Amino acid sequence: MPVLRQRLLFLAVSWACGLGAACAAELPATVADAAAARASVPLAAFAALPAIQHPSLSPDGRAAAMVQNVDGMSYVVVTRFGEKPKVLFKTDNAKYTFWSLRWAGNQRLLVGAHFSEDLRGVRTQETRLIAMDADGGNLKADLTRSMLGDGFSDRARRMPQIHDRVLTGLRGEPETVLLALDTREPGQPDVYRLDVRSGRSRLVQRNLGGIHVWLTDREGEVRLGYGTSGTIARVMVRPTASSARPAEWTALTRYDATDAAQTRVHALTPLGFDADPRFLYALAPVDGRNALVRIDLHDPAFARQTLLADPRLDVRATLLRDPATGRVVGAECVTDALHLLYWDPEARRRGELLSAALPGRALKVLGSDEVGQRSIVVASEAARPPEYFMVDWARGQVEPFGRNHPALDEQPLATPQQVALRSRDGLALEGYLTLPPGVVPGTRPARPLPTVLLPHGGPAAADNGSYEYWPQFMASRGWAVLQLNFRGSTGYGQDFREAGRRRWGLEMQDDLADGLRWMVDQGIADAARVCIAGSSYGGYSALMGVVKDPALYRCAVSLAGPADLRDLLAHSQKFVGYATHAEAEIGTWWGDRAQLRQTSPALRAAEIRVPVLLMHGANDATVPVEQSRDMAEALQKAGRTDVRYVELPLGDHALSRQQDREQFLAEVEQFLRKNLD
After folding, report:
1. Relative to the CA of 3, which of 26, 281, 410, 514 has its CA 20 to 30 Å away?
2. In total, how many domains does the chain have?
3. Burial per residue of 249-284, b for 16 or more beta-carbon CB atoms within 10 angstroms, e otherwise
4. Residue 21 is part of which domain span?
């Protein structure tokens, strides 16, 4: 989340006034058949917010809390098993949304509330921390306010943007947590001990300089921090004392984050400590790709043991712990598939029980009670939205807990299939192809289909074939969808990632065009009926695609897409991490100004020859709404009459409101039907 370099000294937020009161509580690939599909799967079913978010078990396992979304409203709900669920409070998602939810002991809940704020003309993302009892009583609508002092006098020099970075609870003190809060320097939080009932706090760890993220051990000791100062990235660690190393802060790694050679050797992403904090688990480069490693912090050389590496792909990992002891018993690792590593027999037994009960799904334990008897598990598959289950390990029972999108349960959905191709310069590319439901994966449709090329945002991200409502919605309307992981995407090693640095609108764009040509050559895409669409960086790619390769596309859709890279860089300079994020990703405002002009769609609007749909949320704190406003104005000045600009007054970057999702999909459907069918 971007953090402003400078903040106003005080921002009065009265959450109590905004809190709602608790309330009672084989499809043939033909135009005709595609039209029938439109009538069979309601748009609202795809646009609906997940029915359940942030499910969390109480430490004693007797209750679960969650956010439930119904008809665009969001409710914080507590269920004590065997009793009627209780709604604690609600939001219509107009002013704020529920960002996080966790227990602090068995009687107290912490809710992170997210909202957008305009500070001296700069749109920012803010969170506040709300505390309440599990029955809705003893509400503190802005828990951290007391930490900031009366009138902002002695204790803080600035109002932080982010208030809900809870690091951990404390053993034996169920209503005390450690909280990271940057009251002194933007983006550089100190760590406070916070009583979640009284709001009293005290400082336990000052920032070491350039630390953005903190980690604690099982006992609640702050032992690791990492971040950047300028372009220098550091991971600082404080091991327990040993004969070889004193218990003091020392650099585990230090490197220039903008130097590819240094990053290849020294980059490190900490995951967490074992029950014995001598051992740290992390992702670290092995032959240019992230691998799962274990580091011995008592070893003078910080010796590493590689636990899982892949010769082609980066490893992404989540640690598996014994809830009772905190001991790391395995890891959930992802490359091109889910790998479950166990080095504990009981953990392996549990994994086998889950796999037998829910075969063919990717399974992830979201949380457990403090003794490890009950757990909430999410089960995922490519062609279905996620589903939650409650597991009683002692009894070997796996029972349904809730579905994310129950309205889609009986609807025909598509199964994304992985594809591989080569770019024009020989780079291996992968992606996911989603064909209309009924077209058998791995086979060609009866005739070439109208197609949407759907590049992901980021661009430091990747599509992985999991359920997503955009491609599923488009496929349900009879359009083929290609999501290509172009160079610069994550997950394919450092060289692949670096190949996209500062190449916006250049080779990154060529990869997308090459993916489309592959679709045409395979007989999947109708070359005369192709639209390029996307959000954020994907929206930029859509606009740049119809500038650079106008003959390939019949239309373009951009949601919150950057249009003038120079202006985007100027905006990004107001936030922490500019040099290692925006500048490293896009280029330098002055040194690369000629390339930035050439790769800014708003400055080349006169070259666009196809219809364009622009949409943007006015509350977007990631890409300023002015980017789409300027693009719309540039197209109007260029004489384009087939451009539609829709601004969502309460919309944010992720379309967090159901109403905005519904309006977006409705606009996209009307636009694509007009231009592709």
Report:
1. 281
2. 2
3. eeebbebbbbeeebbbebbbebbbbbbebbbbbbbb
4. 1-25+85-174+184-207
